[in-house]
Write a structure and sequence with these properties.
By secondary structure, this protein is mainly α. The chain folds into 3 domains: 9-220, no CATH class; 224-330, Arc Repressor Mutant, subunit A (Orthogonal Bundle), CATH 1.10.10; 335-499, no CATH class. The chain is built from 21 helices and 7 strands. The protein has helices at 9-27, 38-44, 46-58, 72-81, 93-102, 104-116, 120-131, 135-143, 155-164, 177-198, 204-220, 224-231, 239-249, 258-265, 269-287, 322-331, 333-358, 394-403, 456-464, 468-485, 492-499, and strands at 255-257, 306-310, 316-320, 381-384, 387-390, 428-431, 451-454. Helix 17 (333-358) crosses helix 18 (394-403) and helix 19 (456-464) packs across helix 20 (468-485). The two termini are 43 Å apart.
């Protein structure tokens, strides 16, 4: 009996983080679920096709007990057995078919019990007795019966993958129903935990794919410590490479489209692409990474350093990977200071607006009740001691608070307190799509549809606490239509990326 104790939440989260990082590296785009990822579709999608094709060849609707011994069942099965990409490594195909032909009655009884019987444990034992203890073959027979209940298996490989996850499992030379049931139980538990912990839609085959790639994910993960070494290695990063990378770093969210960097720095798009691609290629060769073929079917190396993100304005962002971001801050602390200054400018602007509202004597005089419903012009760009920022209109924040009746829009039940200057609840205005991203939009972000009223606890949680994504998701659902009407067309994924 194998050990079915599953890894804990923290360890599973760590492995899943590395899995996502690997998938994003290999696909050149953000991981937003198993269904939509280019790499996973390309590398794992064949399992769904094998199942579909095998089901078609089996023609189970034509089976009944009267057909046992006639050869009809065997002929259907042999086509499914030969299905391209059949998920087992046994090469004695002709011997297996000859055994079926030589023992037709027994073979068709075994097959009938697998696919139309009501005792899977007994059918498994009969299959082992007839076909031999060929674990991957027997698992395949059950997988093509029901992909939501059964899975293919490569005993040696999956024993090793489970070990990477810290699960002690013996699969090799253990071809039995008890062992197979435990193997399925482990992957089913992983599926359920992934759904619970990460709020993902996960099929049993998705969880199987996660385990299948976990070793490669570990090998391809570059830690902060490794990035520090690479940044200090002049054979990997030239001075020009580092300067370009710093420009990405000081962008909002350490994220920018290459065209934006071209506009801001004067460095050509070709030069930026070539620089980051060259660094990625050197690192890839240094660590022996497999070539990265992105969804545009071209070899690319920039995903070694960045996460790729589709933007709502049809541009494509490169976001520096978190571990590289941390390494940059350690190797070049002055860049962190620059970034903090930029963030400080936005924080100061937000704080100034809150202070002005708090001291205002006209809190109860706003006549604003509904959104404008059409795009407004971008605000003026002004110089401050911390740099340039877009001007904010205090009255629009006041209007947004008034529209919410000075209650928290996460929940009107959230406790607050009365302001010093009036008998009105204290709530704070917050730009849902941050003003730091104003450059990405042709219409202003400083508009009532984009400003929410929050209690101070929720406001601070968005900026500094765990659970901020849930708050953003709630507010987005409330405002997405109003935002769209005012020219702020953004997906939930795009918005969350601005906060991550």
């Amino acid at each position: 009996m194998m050990n079915s104790n599953l890894i804990g939440k923290i360890d599973l989260a760590d492995h899943f983080y590395k899995f996502k990082s690997f998938v994003e590296m290999r696909s050149g785009c953000l991981f937003d679920g198993f269904d939509n990822n280019y790499f996973l579709k390309k590398e794992e999608g064949y399992k769904y096709k094998v199942f579909k094709d095998a089901q078609k060849y089996l023609q189970l609707d034509s089976w009944d007990e009267s057909k046992i011994g006639t050869g009809c069942i065997a002929e259907c099965f042999k086509k499914a057995y030969d299905c391209k990409g059949n998920l087992f490594n046994y090469h004695g195909s002709n011997r297996t078919k000859k055994k079926i032909d030589d023992n037709l009655l027994t073979a068709e009884k075994v097959l009938y019990n697998i696919y139309l019987g009501n005792d899977d444990e007994k059918a498994f034992a009969e299959a082992v007795e007839f076909f031999g203890a060929k674990y991957d073959l027997i698992a395949y027979l059950f997988f093509i019966k029901d992909r939501d209940e059964y899975l293919p298996i490569s005993p040696k490989n999956f024993e090793r993958m489970f070990a990477v996850l810290g699960i002690n499992v013996k699969l090799q030379y253990q071809c039995s129903w008890e062992n197979y049931a435990e193997y399925l139980s482990l992957i089913r538990q992983i599926k359920e935990k992934m759904e619970e912990y990460f709020s993902l839609k996960v099929s049993l085959l998705d969880a199987h794919s996660f385990v299948r790639w976990i070793e490669e994910a570990e090998k391809h993960f570059i830690t902060k410590e490794k990035w520090i070494e690479l940044l200090k290695n002049e054979a990997v990063f030239t001075i020009e490479d580092k300067n370009i990378l710093k420009e990405f770093y000081i962008s909002p969210g350490h994220t920018a489209a290459c065209s934006e960097l071209e506009d801001r720095t004067g460095k050509s798009l070709i030069k930026i692409n070539k620089s980051m691609g060259s660094v990625g290629k050197k690192i890839s060769e240094m660590y022996g990474f497999a070539p990265i073929i992105t969804r545009v079917e071209e070899k690319r190396h920039w995903p070694i350093l960045f996460r790729g993100i589709d933007r709502d304005d049809n541009k494509f962002d490169w976001k520096i990977k978190p571990e590289l971001t941390e390494a940059l801050e350690e190797v070049f602390p002055e860049e962190k200071s620059k970034h903090i200054e930029k963030e400080t400018e936005e924080f100061i602007a937000e704080t100034e607006t809150q202070r002005e509202i708090s001291t205002s004597k006209i809190l109860s005089k706003s006549e604003f009740f509904g959104f404008i419903g059409k795009p407004r012009m971008k605000p003026e760009l002004i110089e401050t001691k911390h740099g340039k920022r877009y001007r904010r209109d205090k009255q629009r924040s006041l209007n947004a608070l008034h529209r919410a009746n000075f209650l928290c829009e996460c929940s009107a039940e959230h406790k607050t307190f009365l302001r010093k200057n009036s008998n009105i609840n204290y709530t704070e205005p917050h730009h849902l799509v941050p003003m730091a991203y104003q450059d990405r939009f042709d219409s202003t972000l400083d508009t009532e549809s984009n400003i929410v009223s929050l209690c101070s606890n929720c406001h601070n949680q968005i900026h500094y606490g765990q659970g901020y994504r849930e708050i953003i998701m709630l507010l987005y659902e409330q405002r997405k239509e109003a935002l769209k009407k005012e020219g702020i067309d953004i997906t939930l994924e795009g918005l969350l990326e601005m906060y991550d």
